[in-house]
Amino acid sequence: MRQRVVNASLPLQVLSAAPTSATALSLAVFLWLAAVAWLRPLSLPDEGRYVGVALEMLWSGNWLEPTLDTLPYFHKPPLFYWLTSASIGTFGINAWAARLGSLLAATACAVSLHQFLWRWAGRAHARAALLALVTTPFFYGGAQFANMDMLVAACISGTILCGAHAVLNASDARPSRPALAGAYAFAALGLLAKGLIGIVIPAIVIGIWLLSLGRAWMILRLVWLPGMALFAVIGLPWFLLMQARFPGFFEYFFVHHHFERFAVQGFNNPRPFWFLVAVFAALTLPWSAFLVGAARAGAYSEAGSRSRVRFRR
Questions:
Q1: Based on the domain organization, do 170 and 28 belong to the same domain?
Q2: How many angstroms separate the CA atoms of 55 and 45, rounded?
Q3: Alpha-carbon gap, residue 241 to 238, rounded angstroms
Q4: Has residue 310 got a pLDDT over 50?
Q5: Which domain holds residue 300?
Q6: Contact 11/28 with Cβ under 8 angstroms?
């Protein structure tokens, strides 16, 4: 038992050294996140339900229409089911294979953040951010949970990081086209992962960031017709096909599941306004304890920068 514990800690020791090779780093992150992913059975109802849909997809051979108990199941888009069906078909029916999609998504999310920060903020910031992320209980647990959340989080992160890289690497006020293409591609995958939040959240984050930088004009530069075409090619065919086969699909998926069910009183057991803030703070300990100090330091730094700009003028 002692040897097993020591071996499980080795990936974290490798992470603390932050290997420069993206392959080595990805392997270390994956091994750390997957260390105990096989210990517990699938939880009910969420993991059992979504993996059940993936199993039906695999057994039926119908990779287009998700079903639950043989009935069409359109609560969520199909990307998670596709990945999980492929994983179970390759590695067998077990908890580890069922969670492989989430593990790979979390690994990609963490490594992408590290590489982005290494490029734009330096090695120290990249290492600190990576260690904080992979040791956050919320992130670590989400990486070992078979549902859409980590998958869409990775797509959202990819969209934001590619969009930020496109802006920061702009030439003659024109965003970097390869990075911008990546942002549109990840946004399309986010749509296939969990719906409109794969588009809306990155747009809000990037928009607020550009406004805070005083570069609101860059928002229009990010609207790129080839990128929109790429988004359409990746993200829209499945939705259009489902609407053609099931005429009420758009209303059910977009109107009901994106808007109506959030407006009713009984959705997800309503909580006081502070509940999610408190839960998030608890699930991100110990790092959430540093947020207040970090925000204060950032505010002082921003104020100092503005003062220096006024002094130079």
A1: yes
A2: 15
A3: 5
A4: no
A5: 271-313
A6: yes
